[in-house]
Specification:
368 residues, alpha/beta, Aspartate Aminotransferase, domain 1, 2 domains, 7-stranded mixed β-sheet, 11 helices, binds pyridoxal-5'-phosphate, PyrdxlP-dep_Trfase_major, transferase
């Protein structure tokens, strides 16, 4: 069996470093916020070359609080994509603002900067680009448009820890950058976690208050806040794992280029890496006709795959509106029917990638 992701293999490789960090944090009794969280916030901000990091309890909370810190609320519109995990849109919805979808670029599957301007109205307050699958969105034109219209830009970098755009790490390319540390992400906790990065001390201060009941100091609630605090144990574990992130990213990129090599000349479209970027391959998503049959074939050969994502957010039952219906986002909708994510994680061997290639090729023959 070749799993889509093998968290056990990763854990086994670093268990001896995690255990002392866990027992130290348990003994310290700083289980919520505290020294480990502060240290991780600083180390992750430094890793990305950001000024400030504020740790929270999930990537969704990071997005929610970043939007609130930017003053987004009812009556506002926020431009984003439907080709994303539902959390991007849920966070916008939590604020009372309305998500406005823009279609994605055919090659990168990230927001198409050429379509943003025509989606802007007087109610538009922000843009939330998503660095989908670990590939940076094309931030220069996005920032240029945002500055011209006075819009806030918040990066959804939940899938892109360590990814780079023109030599700069994602999460630092806009007003705020939001990350998730869900276990399956490129940098994952042993539970939930998230962080907001920013260079703006006013945003950071607001988010620090909002994550902890809007308190200025204990029992002085100056904002309506939330219980969105990061746990000490998760921070301690993330500090250990951050030291391995670059090696894991290199391994992911090696597997990705090996897949590229193996699949060259087939009917499969491999992920397209934009020049001047460093894609971190959270997901290695191919595009293939007759996707569901190909997937079944892989499944029968015990190769696990994923689909990111089968139903774009604008067509999800909970988020469907008459403002954006089937047919309105043709590139997004076509991709949803063709994308297939192959196994990728740092511990995956070349031999296994070769096996995936062999099964894929016989599946293509059968479905041709
Ligand atoms: C995972 C993810 C999130 C949400 O992060 P959680 O930590 O699961 O709340 C948001 N956006 C994208 C694109 C994601 O992949």
């Amino acid at each position: 069996m070749i799993p889509f992701l093998d968290l056990k293999a990763q854990y086994e490789s670093i268990k001896d470093e995690i255990m002392p960090a866990v027992s130290e944090t348990l003994a310290s009794t700083q289980w919520i916020l505290g020294d480990q969280v502060t240290a991780f916030e600083n180390e992750f901000a430094q890793y990305c070359s950001a000024g400030i990091g504020v740790g929270v309890n999930s990537g969704t909370s990071a997005l929610h609080l970043a939007l609130l810190a930017a003053g987004i609320g009812p009556g506002d519109k926020v431009i984003t994509v439907a080709n994303t995990f539902v959390a991007t849109v849920a966070a916008i919805d939590y604020t009372g603002a309305q998500a406005v979808y823009v279609d994605v670029d055919e090659h990168t599957l990230n927001i198409d900067p050429g379509l943003i301007e025509s989606a802007i109205t007087t109610q538009t307050k922000a843009i939330v680009p998503v660095h989908l699958h670990g590939q940076p969105a094309d931030m220069d034109p996005i920032m240029e448009i945002a500055r011209r219209y006075g819009l806030v830009v918040i990066e959804d970098a939940a899938q892109a820890h360590g990814a780079e755009y023109r030599g700069r790490r994602v999460g630092t390319l806009a007003d705020m950058g939001c990350f998730s540390f869900y276990p399956g992400k490129n940098l994952g906790a042993c539970g939930e976690g998230g962080i907001v990065l920013t260079d703006n001390p006013l945003y950071a201060e607001k988010i620090r208050m909002l994550r902890d009941w809007g308190q200025e100091r204990k029992y002085h609630h100056v904002h309506k806040g939330f219980n969105y605090r990061m746990e000490g144990l998760q921070a301690a574990i993330l500090r250990v794992k951050l030291r391995h992130l670059d090696a894991w990213t290199t391994a992911r990129r090696d597997i990705a280029s090996y897949y590229d090599e193996l699949l060259a000349g087939s009917d499969i479209t491999c992920p397209w890496e934009q020049s001047n970027t460093r894609h971190v391959y959270h997901v290695y998503a191919i595009r293939v006709r007759d996707r569901d049959r190909v997937r079944q074939h892989l499944d029968k050969s015990h190769i696990q795959t994923g689909i990111h994502y089968p139903i774009p957010v604008h067509l999800q039952a909970a988020y469907a509106t008459s403002r954006c219906v089937s047919g309105d986002l043709p590139v997004t909708e076509r991709a949803a029917g063709e994308l297939l994510s192959l196994p990728i994680f740092a511990e995956l061997g070349k031999h296994e990638a070769m096996q995936v290639n062999n099964v894929l090729r016989s599946a293509l023959k059968e479905t041709a």
